[in-house]
Amino acid sequence: MNTNTTVSGFTPVEHDLYAQAFRLLDPAPTPAPGAAAPPPAVAPAAPVLQTVLPTGAVERTLADGLRFLDTHGWVQRSLIHSGGARCSIGALRAAAGARTPAYQDAGNLLLDEARRQNGKQWTALPSWNDSHTRGQVRSVWEAAIRRAHRMNI
């Protein structure tokens, strides 16, 4: 981990989880020729205007990931839906563009915030994402963005 995250009791997560997610995310699935893409599992929500510009790479990654979910939709039980919607880890991947330290730290912070709000039993973003509502997931994203801003990361 490259970002100083020890100041707020940040709980690191095993990085192999992210490597597994990348293997599943890359390359992006392509629909069969001539097949119509089904609609996203969940329709995109109206974007929320952000009044404070992100200060650090982790905050930017989280803010861009949430903006991706707002624009393309959120989905459960699938990293990437054929209609473009993604789960939380898929949105982080789209926001980061590559497996960067900011991506890893954003994922760790998001999971740590999910555990704060929804219980310590969650050990991976995919299982947490698949077990909660859109509103609960959004609440965790927003709290993680605020926390990254306060930590200046």
Could you say which overall geometry the principal axes of the C-alpha atoms support?
A: globular
Rg: 15 Å
Number of strands: 0
Helicity level: 40-55%
Mean pLDDT: 78
User: Which parts are unreliable, with pLDDT below 50 for 5 consecutive residues or more?
Assistant: none
Label the structural class: mainly alpha
**Number of DSSP helical runs:** 6
Sequence of secondary-structure elements: HHHHHH
Describe the sheet with the most strands: none
Q: First CA to last CA: what distance? A: 12 Å
Q: Beta-sheet strand percentage? A: under 5%
Annotation keywords:
153 residues; globular; 6 helices; mainly alpha
Please characterize this protein's 3D structure.
Helix 2 runs antiparallel to helix 6 (134-151) and helix 4 crosses helix 6 (134-151). This protein is mostly helical. It has helices spanning 16-25, 57-72, 88-96, 101-118, 125-130, 134-151. The mean pLDDT is 78.
Summed up, what is this model?
This protein is an all-alpha fold. It has helices at residues 16-25, 57-72, 88-96, 101-118, 125-130, 134-151.
Question: Which helices and strands, and how do they pair?
Answer:
Blueprint: H1 16-25, H2 57-72, H3 88-96, H4 101-118, H5 125-130, H6 134-151
